[in-house]
């Protein structure tokens, strides 16, 4: 009954008055590389460069004339905001979009350009949402949710309807990005009703996997923390209405990391010349992981490029991480003798592999710790063979390829040791990115502890990433995190991270 209900709503959805049927493009290079037939549903080609327009417009199409006269409102920092703005403009309805102050200016301007009024409120989505709901009560406007609504789900479900019409042949699986769950619920409802043999596989960023957590618990759960790299799917709890469908009709959920998402951005570009946002490439990253895990060949597989609203200045960070995501680069910490000719001998062991990065600073009269990037073949065995060859040659090696501290900060600070930074505690932070954010962070950090290390680098995202060293006397150590918790920024203690131990702290620090 649930599927039949949604299929009827999907067939009657009014999306094509403003949205368009997007093509199912063959990913020829990737298909050849994986020995499968991979197709990409091009939702990045919508007028707002995202599928969100479908759900927003269909929800508005169900409103009464009285509700339209009162206007519509939503809280969003991303694609839903642009979709609702365009839908409202098409219908001649007043729209107010509440966006967090950290929202990149490119998205604010895009919403304003489509005729909506933008109100910047708070540093996080919850504060924006609270203000939007307050205006609903005060002004009688209708709140248009981004995913947790049956009409929104039905609008998004037209993506699944188009996929089956465009590819009536055998189809092994459809890979769908998951944030709040509106898109995957709509696709699953339509596809499982008509073609139940097709697998519906959700893909989530590993640090915002709210659907995977809910399926494991068989109940909606709230994640304590949510990662922000793929901000379009950074949702702490799966929607109530989407979960009614997902708990029964989603076959599995695959999680992917930042490097795998970045590699998928590159794959989409090479096959379509489209630059997707991180959440837009999410489903392809999961598709590739599924192929590797299942070792399948000759199958028809579909993924969805859900959006292309990314800031240009994020591309540098994405490019840096792509080689790691493709497993074409190994990041290693190697100890070599501190004497002339050592680096040359090290390169002889590496052989014909290309050195992509090298960081070093003198720190010890006998041993040198070098931070080195080396090109490797993407099958995984080549990296292990390289490490084994170095160890056989007598070099102590530590693999930092999956170490976030090393990739975000150490590579820009390699060799920056200090003598005398006693009692140093090191923390990695994420904080809302906006003008004056660094000063505000330092004001919050202000205490009696000396700052012994500080590294910040803008990644073109809504959140800044900072590495901080604090000189904390032993008597205060128990109080540090109590104080940091009050700042309310996401953080990780990195004092015992091996990358920090090798490259930034005093030599021969006890790791115990």
From TrEMBL:
All residue ranges annotated as the ACT-like domain in the record: 330-402, 425-496
GO molecular function: L-serine ammonia-lyase activity; pyridoxal phosphate binding; threonine deaminase activity
Pathway: Amino-acid biosynthesis; L-isoleucine biosynthesis; 2-oxobutanoate from L-threonine: step 1/1
This protein's UniProt keywords: Amino-acid biosynthesis, Branched-chain amino acid biosynthesis, Isoleucine biosynthesis, Lyase, Pyridoxal phosphate, Repeat
UniProt-listed InterPro entries: ACT-like_dom_sf, Ser/Thr_Dehydratase, Ser/Thr_deHydtase_PyrdxlP-BS, TD_ACT-like, TD_ACT-like_sf, Thr_deHydtase_biosynth, TrpB-like_PALP, TrpB-like_PALP_sf
Pfam families on file: PALP, Thr_dehydrat_C
Stored SUPFAM superfamilies: ACT-like (SSF55021), Tryptophan synthase beta subunit-like PLP-dependent enzymes (SSF53686)
Cofactors demanded by this protein: pyridoxal 5'-phosphate
Enzyme class: lyase
GO biological process, one term: L-serine catabolic process
Catalytic activity of the protein: L-threonine = 2-oxobutanoate + NH4(+)
Alphabetized CDD domains for the sequence: ACT_ThrD-I_1 (cd04906), ACT_ThrD-I_2 (cd04907), Thr-dehyd (cd01562)
Origin superkingdom: Bacteria
EC number: 4.3.1.19
Subunit structure: Homotetramer.
Function: Catalyzes the anaerobic formation of alpha-ketobutyrate and ammonia from threonine in a two-step reaction. The first step involved a dehydration of threonine and a production of enamine intermediates (aminocrotonate), which tautomerizes to its imine form (iminobutyrate). Both intermediates are unstable and short-lived. The second step is the nonenzymatic hydrolysis of the enamine/imine intermediates to form 2-ketobutyrate and free ammonia. In the low water environment of the cell, the second step is accelerated by RidA.
Family assignment from sequence similarity: Belongs to the serine/threonine dehydratase family.
Protein name: L-threonine dehydratase
Primary gene name: ilvA
């Amino acid at each position: 009954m649930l599927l039949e209900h949604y299929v009827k709503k999907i067939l009657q959805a009014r999306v094509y008055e403003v949205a368009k049927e997007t093509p199912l493009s063959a990913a020829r290079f990737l298909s050849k590389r994986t020995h499968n037939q991979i197709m990409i549903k091009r939702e990045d080609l919508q007028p707002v460069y995202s599928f969100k327009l479908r759900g927003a417009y269909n929800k508005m199409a169900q409103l009464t004339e009285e509700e339209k006269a009162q206007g519509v409102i939503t809280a969003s920092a991303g694609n839903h905001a642009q979709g609702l703005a365009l839908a409202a403009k098409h219908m001649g309805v007043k729209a107010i979009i509440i966006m967090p102050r950290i929202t990149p200016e490119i998205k604010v301007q895009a919403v304003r350009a489509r005729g909506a009024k933008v109100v910047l409120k708070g540093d996080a989505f919850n504060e924006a949402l609270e203000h939007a709901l307050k205006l609903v009560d005060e002004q009688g406007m209708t709140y248009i949710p981004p995913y947790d609504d049956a009409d929104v789900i039905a609008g998004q479900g037209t993506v699944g309807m188009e996929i089956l019409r465009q590819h009536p042949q055998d189809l092994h699986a459809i890979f769908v990005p998951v944030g709040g769950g509106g898109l995957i619920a709509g696709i699953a409802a339509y596809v499982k009703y008509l073609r139940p043999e097709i697998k519906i596989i959700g893909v989530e960023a590993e640090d915002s996997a709210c659907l995977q957590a809910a399926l494991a618990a068989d109940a909606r759960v709230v994640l304590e923390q949510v990662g922000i790299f793929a901000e379009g799917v950074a949702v702490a709890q799966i929607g109530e209405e989407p979960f009614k469908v997902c708990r029964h009709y989603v076959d599995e959920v695959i999680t992917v990391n930042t490097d795998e998402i970045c590699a998928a951005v590159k794959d989409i570009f090479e096959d379509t010349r489209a630059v997707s946002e991180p959440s837009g490439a999410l489903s392809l990253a999961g598709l590739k992981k599924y192929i590797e895990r299942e070792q399948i060949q000759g199958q028809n597989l579909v993924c969805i490029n859900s959006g292309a609203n990314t800031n240009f200045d994020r591309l540098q960070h994405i490019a840096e991480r792509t080689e790691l995501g493709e497993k074409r680069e190994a990041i290693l910490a190697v100890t070599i003798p501190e004497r002339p000719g050592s680096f040359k001998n090290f390169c002889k062991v590496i052989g014909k592999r290309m050195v992509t990065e090298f960081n070093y600073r003198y720190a010890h009269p006998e041993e040198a710790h070098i931070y080195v990037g080396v090109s490797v073949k993407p099958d995984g065995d080549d990296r292990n063979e390289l490490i084994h060859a170095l160890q056989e040659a007598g070099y102590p090696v530590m693999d930092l390829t999956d170490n976030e501290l090393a990739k975000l900060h150490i590579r820009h600070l390699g060799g920056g040791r200090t003598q005398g930074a006693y009692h140093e505690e090191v923390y990695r932070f994420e904080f809302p990115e906006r003008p004056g954010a660094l000063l505000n962070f330092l004001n919050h950090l202000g205490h009696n502890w000396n700052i012994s290390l500080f590294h910040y680098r803008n990644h073109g995202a809504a959140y800044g990433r900072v590495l901080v060293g604090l000189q904390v006397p032993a008597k205060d150590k128990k109080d540090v995190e109590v104080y940091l918790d009050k700042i309310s920024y996401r953080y990780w203690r990195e004092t015992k991270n091996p990358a920090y131990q090798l490259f930034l702290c005093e030599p021969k620090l006890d790791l115990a």
